[in-house]
Amino acid sequence: MADGFLGFRTSFMLDFVVCALAAVVPTLVFSIYLVKFKSKYVAHRNIQLGLAVVLLIAVGAFEVDMQLVQGGWQNVVAKREIQLTPEQLQSVRQVLWIHLAFAVSSPILWAVTIVLALRRMPKPPAPCEHSSLHKKLGWASTIDLTLTSITGLWFYFVAFVQ
């Protein structure tokens, strides 16, 4: 198994997804800034759709790598130079479960937000009847994605760095 490019004994795809998680929040903030303060609705839509596609591909490739190539996250953790105690491994599992709660809900919520926007917003996008619901869904998606990123980075840290 190849080591990751961030200097830890992980995998290329795990390190790639960690980098993607670190880039999600600033990209979301920039997209929200564009729509909220600059009224750049098309740019906001395009950034959101681009981010969704990139993350879908990255996470899909990550899951294939993690499950089929690496044989599961525990096999990757086992590559560490310093092995985790059973107590530490249990702690890592708990962090993973917290992360998975957000990682599963985020794409569902984000997909609902995007699909409804594509169906209900005018073309090109502009304020409309759907805007109020879209703002609520958008903020919920942003918070969920932010928590997915934070907990994903937390999992990476406790499983592979500390």
Kindly, what is the distance between the CA atoms of the first and last residues, rounded to a whole number of angstroms? 20 Å
Order of helices and strands: HHHHH
The quaternary organization reads as single chain
- Alpha-beta content class: mainly alpha
Number of strands: 0
Choose one word for the global shape: elongated
What's the pLDDT, averaged over the residues?
A: 91
Number of helices: 5
Give the total of domains. 1
> Helical amount among residues, as a percent range?
over 70%
The main sheet comes to: none
Q: Which spans of ≥5 residues are poorly predicted at pLDDT below 50?
A: none
The percent range for strand residues is under 5%
Radius of gyration, whole Å: 18 Å
Kindly describe this structure:
The chain has 162 residues and is mainly α. It has one domain. 78% of the residues lie in helices and 0% in strands. It is built from five helices and no strands. It has helices spanning 12-38, 41-69, 73-77, 86-120, 131-161. α1 runs antiparallel to α2 (41-69), α1 runs antiparallel to α5 and α2 runs antiparallel to α4. The model has no long low-confidence stretch (mean pLDDT 91).
